[in-house]
Amino acid sequence: MKPKVAFICVHNSCRSQMAEALGVMIGSAVFESYSAGTETKPQINQDAVRIIKDLYKIDMNETHTSKLIDDIPQADIVIKMGCNVVCPIMAHRHEEDWGLDDPTGKSDAEFIKTARIIEEKIKDLKKRIGNNEIDLSGEVVW
């Protein structure tokens, strides 16, 4: 069974949504991708939607909604996007904080930069999971 990866941040509207979309595109052979937050937005960030569509031909408006942590399955791996406040807490076997700045309200160049960083981190995560470099055998922790 493939491990479940949850990309989390507070609002689940921008970075975590981009990571979920790229996780599905790049990593679906190795892991399942989900995203969530502690609060939701009426719609996901439309600048993020536009940039992901331009760069990767993925229309997040068709498949993504802003979700709460309780709306997704329990994750094996939790990736915090870089909340700069109190990040959401979720049970997991492995946790990372990618420390990404939120591009909301910034230029397209910032969104593109964020998307490319997420793409590289997803590729690295896929490689590490595939090579069993992440220990998922331990107990679930909070």
Automatic annotation (TrEMBL):
A GO biological process held by the record: response to arsenic-containing substance
InterPro entries in UniProt: Ptyr_pPase, Ptyr_pPase_sf
Keyword Transmembrane assigned: no
UniProt keywords, alphabetically: Arsenical resistance
Manganese listed as a keyword: no
Signal peptide boundaries: none
Pfam families to which the protein is assigned, alphabetical: LMWPc
SMART domains: LMWPc (SM00226)
UniProt domain Phosphotyrosine protein phosphatase I: residue ranges: 3-128
Name of the featured protein: Arsenate reductase
Gene designation: arsC
